[in-house]
Write the structure tokens for this entry.
Amino acid sequence: QVQLVESGGGLVQAGGSLRLSCAASGIKFRINTMSWYRQAPGKQRELVADINSGGTINYVDSVKGRFTISRDNAKNTVYLQMNSLKPEDTAVYYCKVLAVFPYWGQGTQVTVSS
């Protein structure tokens, strides 16, 4: 049974930082690409960043230079370090893995106040 559990969201002022974590179980974590998505109210869910098994990373343009995705294969955990947060980063952030089927976490709310 695949399970993804996010944590680390919260309320922060603009310019602040948060670190999201996603703990995975039920998959061969080290071979899978792990992704962070976000969905703001009234908007479509968008890919924020992903990291594959070889460490290749992709970011959406709006977070480049501010967010850092990383993974710890020993802990089956993927992280999203978010710095210089902006109000437009406010969204529910989801962890996703594609392991034959796509699996999603429950999401964690990030709210950035101006």
User: Anything to note?
Assistant: The longest strand covers residues 91-99.
